[in-house]
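Continuing from the previous page of notes. For each protein in this section, the sequence appears first, followed by its structure tokens. Read the first protein now.
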Amino acid sequence: MEGGATLADKAEFKECLRLTWSQPYILQLVFSAGIGGLLFGYDTGVISGALLYIRDDFTAVEKSTVLRETIVSMAVAGAIVGAGFGGWMNDKFGRKPSILIADALFLAGALIMALAPTPFVIIIGRIFVGLGVGMASMTAPLYISEASPARIRGALVSTNGLLITGGQFMAYLINLAFTKVKGTWRWMLGIAGLPAFIQFILMCMLPESPRWLYRQDRKEEAEAILRKIYPAAEVEEEIDSLRRSIEHEKQLEGSIGEQSLVGKLTKALSSKVVRRGLMAGVIAQVAQQFVGINTVMYYSPTIVQLAGFASNNTAMALSLITSGLNAIGSIVSMFFVDRAGRRHLMIISLVGIVLWLAVLGGTFLGAAHHAPPVSDLETRVFANQTCPEYSPSARWNCMNCLKAQSTCGFCAHGGDKLLPGACLAAGEASRRTCHAGNREFYTEGCPNNFGWLALVALGAYIVSYSPGMGTVPWIVNSEIYPLRFRGVCGGIAAVANWVSNLIVTQTFLSLTKALGTSATFFLFCAVSFFALVVVFFTVPETKGLQFEEVEKMLGEKDYKPWKRYRPDVSSKGRDIGLSVP
């Protein structure tokens, strides 16, 4: 899933470099916890390539799109449970034990998948990995935030977002490295256990979050850790600041009164300010997923094959482009979100997404219309492996062959892939026979001259998505809720994001089979256009506003999200002490 990053400005990054150089202990803390982000990104990227080889090894997976979707999406389902359980774990037992348990789950899942004898066992391993990813995705940024000096906190937490996209890119590289190794997908999935094991060892040598310790009245331990993090001249001031901050947190919690989740939620929803903020936050998170980004991140090589590139190796090599562009987009967002504004960046991003999804849909439509025909003469060469549903009297083309109920593949012409080819029963024997004649065997998309345009559109889609819809929804959700309800509202929005992710990943391949690839991308285009309209009318601009000013804006009688809020200059800066780091 696409994760969020806390944004920092240029001066904060310079201060970050200076302070981590003088206080290397900070870097040790951040790097050790940040491996959780790397694992999150790696799992997102690795399954997209491994799925191609799992499909080749298990006939049941090749014949069932639902089984392929389940293998991918069970990690997302596990992450939903892991994130919810992780929130309770964080509060009850601390950040460090939560990260250690997440690593143990991830390591167990990686080993189960690497040794899996059946697709069902792979699914079990995916659930274990998902539980670990869900816990790590929320705990790692929290640990980094609470163990970082306040003035460079944004820059250090941003590294977690960069490690997520870096993990995705690393996954594609590792996928490519193991394409020629026996047991391909087992190595791809199993090697994920290595960084989890490294993080487990490193975290055993690191302390608990000083903020959590202070809240548990283990003040001496917290102060000892702060003395390692801050320069000697700043320690006492930071200890006093932490004390005041936690006292204020407890006052806010007392003002809510009801401590149960249902009670907090009921009290939150009784506030017009919270309802408006929650509407904007949830819509932004759901829109982030329903524009189809995780179809690209989880199924990128498959989409490349749908565009007409049959080779697994070629598909994964070309998928590196999407992963690299996503990482670059995350960096671009960090520098422009405070200049362009959150709302403005989201709307520009959605306009680009709608445009390039339309181009993708049109490209696949053109490819389907120009699919090479199936030749009875060519098919007769493979007499024992002909697709059961093929009849010489039927005027089939490659697309008809691939849509056959019995799961068939198209063996392209040996001289020119655009000339008539053969329709064969899908399977390893047919693939080998086809390749023996120096032909390409297509099971996802058909050979065409439009593949390059699909790749350009896919790259442009990522460039449009990443700097805007990729990061801004998480930023909006960190700013739009009143402080006393930020935990419960942020949790609701995060669950909405994960559930939307699950829906998209569990239905994408089925949609391409039921509607066709072009219609599926046109559907995502229509949904993205609807998201653009809804975001325009529900998500306000929070750029440059203090938390108290955001709350005041949402409480205005004539509140209109599409109008820029102008705070009272005379009151700007008052009550800033209400913000809790």
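Done with the first. The second protein uses the same format. Note its length before scrolling.
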Amino acid sequence: MASNVEAPERWYLALLGFAEHFRTSSPPKIRLCVHCLQAVFQFKPPQRIEARTHLQLGSVLYHHTKNSELARSHLEKAWFISQQVPQFEDVKFEAASILSELFCQQNLVDSAKPLLRKAIQISQQTPYWHCRLLFQLAQLHTLEKDLVSACDLLGVGAEYARVVGSEYTRALFLLSKGMLLLMERKLGEVHPLLTLCGTIVENWQGNPIQKESLRVFFLVLQVTHYLDAGQVKSVKPCLKQLQQCIQTISTLHDDEILPSNPADLFHWLPKEHMCVLVYLVTVMHSMQAGYLEKAQKYTDKALMQLEKLKMLDCSPILSTFQVILLEHIIMCRLVTGHKATALQEISQVCQLCQQSPRLFTNHAAQLHTLLGLYCISVNCMDNAEAQFTTALRLTTHQELWTYIVTNLASVYIREGNRHQELYSLLERINPDHNFPVSSHCLRAAAFYIRGLLSFFQGRYNEAKRFLRETLKMSNAEDLNRLTACSLVLLGHIFYVLGNHRESNNMVVPAMQLASKIPDMSVQLWSSALLKDLNKALGNTIDAHEAAQMHQNFSQQLLQDHIAACSLPEHNLISWTDGPPPVQIQAQNGPTTSLASLL
């Protein structure tokens, strides 16, 4: 009798051993692994072995092959059989979890949701799985842009974690909820939630890496909250804490000691991903503040780290990080006068988006915005308008919408004959009345746009009022680019009014700041003004020096302009519909006007 019971265990363990050997071979021999697992059913095994084998087959087929229908069939059997077996939680809930992932991959979200809800309902006595399934359903709602349902589930998870004595996982649920509330701009709910999270994180005594990772999550939310609000100076203490925190984590060794509470078996992000994320928010800060060389340095570090990680890890979040880094560095390149490089990086973003429809859906508006900015830099105003109009159609993000409208208004001002459209736009971004977002930076930019329009209309006193408001706001938060732009425009106004001394007082610091950023367009503008100013003041040597600087900047911009417009990627400026074009045809030389540069 005893030998009869042992016999099936021996054959089962042998087949399982072979299957695992083939799965972990280099390269993996998946077909042989599947054959070994399928052979288990020839022995008519008991329900526990039958359910586990269906799960193993479903998992291997899902992760290593494209045979999703067969994977689904095995996972459905594992889920069905395991519900009839007592105390078989791991198989039951892992089957539900993987099966719901497969449903989502097949765009069967309406099949995934009830499955996860049922699994959540029956997993309340299994803390690890209950929490994991709550996170999974919350993520599914988030991907569907149903942030209210996702927040509700994360709230349920936080309360459950508190009841089962896991303050660590409670903090993870609350921080995740805080992240979604920030996305929804529910700032009134975010502040008390972040305060509570801060207290929980500081009071929690546990694994040092887990504690520091909670602090990184908490500080990333705080930093992005400040940056969303355009508060570049106010964010510095938080950013410094975040950078110190990631340094601490990088010195800690991963302990293999498992937490005593199964509800604590979660990690927010791997340590390496957190490092890239901290580089990313540092780049965001440097770009907003106008420290573009620093932004370049951290982008290079982050992209190098990402390339290493992507060799071993195909996590979608790495591609998202890469796209966001490229988006920021492209804007830096356009400011520093490296349009050709910016265009090639825009093409790189297109290629990344071609590989992932979800990435394209989330970044299409940003991609068209970047193309619009590139079009302005090469003086293709009709294309810039078409790109910004496309971006406005694709975005629901209020800050991005405001940023696009501000840039589109600058296009209409330059064209000089779009008064009706321009006034319609300016009414929607009036910095004095019902400004659509709370961003300090965008409101300061809206004042600048008003000042620019008043300047072109010859209403100089009104222009000065708007520009002084921009200066006041940009100085308060160290917005260096806006400060430089406002100073040079004020200098131009004083020059036109014949107040050369006051003009000089504006243009000289504008030039110094533009050189520090460096902002090539403001340097070009400032050097032209300094040349005329010094000539008017009789400073022949200074006038000659400024003329030489202006000539150098003009030549650099002209060469870059020709290089950019000669690239086959320049044809992207005509793309305004559908997914990014797969192949970009070369064209014969530049077709755009260089007048704006000279």
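What the second structure shows: Confidence is low (pLDDT under 50) at residues 1-7, 585-598. The chain has 26 helices and no strands. We return to this in next week's lecture.
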